[in-house]
Amino acid sequence: xxxxxxxxxxxxxxxxxxxxxxxxxxxxxxxxxxxxxxxxxxxxxxxxxxxxxxxxxxxxxxxxxxxxxxxxxxxxxxxxxxxxxxxxxxxxxxxxxxxxxxxxxxxxxxxxxxxxxxxxxxxxxxxxxxxxxxxxxxxxxxxxxxxxxxxxxxxxxxxxxxxxxxxxxxxxxxxxxxxxxxxxxxxxxxxxxxxxxxxxxxxxxxxxxxxxxxxxxxxxxxxxxxxxxxxxxxxxxxxxxxxxxxxxxxxxxxxxxxxxxxxxxxxxxxxxxxxxxxxxxxxxxxxxxxxxxxxxxxxxxxxxxxxxxxxxxxxxxxxxxxxxxxxxxxxxxxxxxxxxxxxxxxxxxxxxxxxxxx
Length: 358
What we know:
Layout: H1 2-5, H2 13-16, H3 36-70, H4 77-93, H5 96-105, H6 111-144, H7 150-171, H8 174-179, E1 180-185, E2 188-193, H9 199-234, H10 239-273, H11 281-299, H12 301-311, H13 314-357
Antiparallel strand pairs: 1-2
């Protein structure tokens, strides 16, 4: 988690005030940045936001998984992508209670859990946006090349999605597996990344990789596909075409509104690590607070995915009603059968006692 294990940029008043050095004592010029205010902010803000995302994400994505399981035989290719997306988001929301505890009181779990939670976080970070990119490619093929795209769409959703989404997402967790560890900072334990030898270079390299794989590459695919779709639909008439066009615009705006602010914060921090932007205590504190807030906004995307990619469809609403009705009927039948079984046993016992008494 970027806001959790961000490397502190070493800044001092000596670096910030080089031009103002006079004849005073050099020790008076060296003042480390105070992180307490940002820490106190995270202790309240992050657990609150993570709790909200956890509840909404569990309900929304859980419902999608239930409905997709119910309509297994009638699943479309788009439904299969939605199932992949909801599984990735469910994996992620299960990690939020651990991050909430760490933000509030520190890391109170084992070193193994530190590695596992970071691995799950990274898998979701990349798999969710790459799945959205695959969905945009699928929509492009279905709308722009509707007549001869069935084979290509089927190949993408049944074979290529594993090599293009899950395999890269898992491979990108290798640094988490090796470098995630529990360490002590300022009297409390944190789940951190400890990089060997030159940690700043490691962080810069991994941060650039995250920006490319988490935003730039999938963002370009999504933007290109949906712009072509918009161009195609804008030349068509009819209520359904206008509705599809409106939904497409909402998908694009939501993707970039959720993720772009967070990645702008990561980009700013990376430029500070590279010394392209001269760091200072106030700038560093503001950037870290910005990352904390925008990361939480980016996390909300896992709550919005079920709404945008499932609940907007009339077919999904009908399937959800049918699935929930079937589940409720099934539970009612089980309860009824238990009651009947209990009544029959009571009846048998009473008949047996009356027979013996007579």
